[in-house]
Amino acid sequence: MPLPCDESLAFLEDMLATPSPSGFEAKIQNVIRSHYAQFADEVHRDVHGNQWFVINPTGAVRLMLCGHVDEIGLMVKYIDDQGFVWVTRIGGSDPLQHWAHRVHIHTRTGPVLGIIGKKPIHNTLPDERTKGAKIEDLFIDIGAKDKAEAMKWVRAGDPITHTSGYQRMPNDLAIARAMDDRIGAFVCLEALRKVHAARAQNKDATMDVALFTVCSVQEEVGLRGAQTSAYSVNPHVGIAVDVGFATDYPNENKKMIGDFKLGSGPILHRGANINLPLADMMESTADAHNIPYQLSGDGCIMGTDAGAIQVSRSGCAAALLSVPNRYMHSPVEMVSLQDVENSAELLAQVALKLRAGQSFIPEPVF
Predict the structure, then answer these.
(1) Which of 98, 179, 221, 276 has the most CB atoms around its CB within 10 Å?
(2) Which pLDDT tens digit goes with each residue over 245-256?
(3) Catalytic residue among 25, 71, 190, 219
(4) 219 has catalytic annotation
(5) Residue 15: how many CA atoms within 13 Å on its side-chain side?
(6) What pLDDT digit, counting tens, does each position of 314-355 carry?
(7) Contact 19, 359 (CB under 8 A)
């Protein structure tokens, strides 16, 4: 099975090493622009922090591919008299995932190393050992001797992320914090690169699509970047790329979530959030190019950028492609690099297949 090229994988590692909690995405947008601007005819940014790369901007069909670059995290809320830092959430952060981890507090002068402390099990009463953590229980030890010293290093509002980085594992698997949704943005950008390469190889071919590849912001706090960027792009067709729940590990509930495996291809969705003609087109395109995929039935509106894109302005034909992900919203999120490559290839083929005048108005299916 294919993998992204070595140059792209090296860039993915750079992306995953760059902290970007919701509201603090400017640094990663600079990293992305430095590599992918070469594949676009135009690059745009907005005051919200979104960034998009455009191929063939005058094409008849505006296609928006969207992956968010923000990640969950923590933020400095309070510094006590002893110099310990107390925190609040950025996005859907699970307190249990933070205890006894190293973190970086990102300040104006650079990252400050800290540890999220917890008293030893020896000093914990038996009934306390099975209790869950609350966000108000979490404090960070930055080694300060008192509040005055701590306040020289950090201040309220500084964002916080885990220090865990990207590592490869057997069977073409990879782990990192913030695969949600750095990997989705990477898939969209790789699709952009593939379309650029296809156009360069066949300069005489007609391309009806204006491809807008959007790196959106603030998804983890309410789909905010997708809402504003979709308004600007005004797409006819919009495909969000996010991570989806892999269920191929112990104790997951397949009856409620579905049966989704790493390495078995991207997850394609059907349901109220998804335009049926577009969903059918994505499946038929995958079949035509021997791209494996998995299907998910989703009766409700999903909490991804697809929900915002679908109802932007007067609405557009929307779909969601999900990269299967184990251990979501943890410092050790795991994906298959085969799934990543297959996702990018499918999106590129969809972009090249779209034609002017193609209807996405739903027709009866039963």
Answers:
(1) 179
(2) 999 999 999 999
(3) 219
(4) yes
(5) 29
(6) 999 999 999 999 999 999 999 999 999 999 999 999 999 999
(7) no
Pick the CATH number of 73-162 from 3.10.450.50, 2.40.30.40, 3.90.180.10, 3.50.50.60: 2.40.30.40
DSSP, collapsed to helix, strand or coil, labels residue 308 as helix
Provide the 3-class DSSP secondary structure of residue 230: helix
0.90 exceeded by pTM: yes
DSSP, collapsed to helix, strand or coil, labels residue 51 as strand
Tell me which of 3.40.630.10, 3.40.50.300, 1.10.3720.10, 3.60.110.10 is the CATH number of domain 6-71+177-353.
3.40.630.10
Amino acid sitting at position 19: P
Rounded-to-10 torsion of CA 314, 315, 317, 321:
160
- Mean pLDDT, residues 71-85 taken together: 97
How far apart are alpha carbons 303 and 281 in whole angstroms? Answer: 23
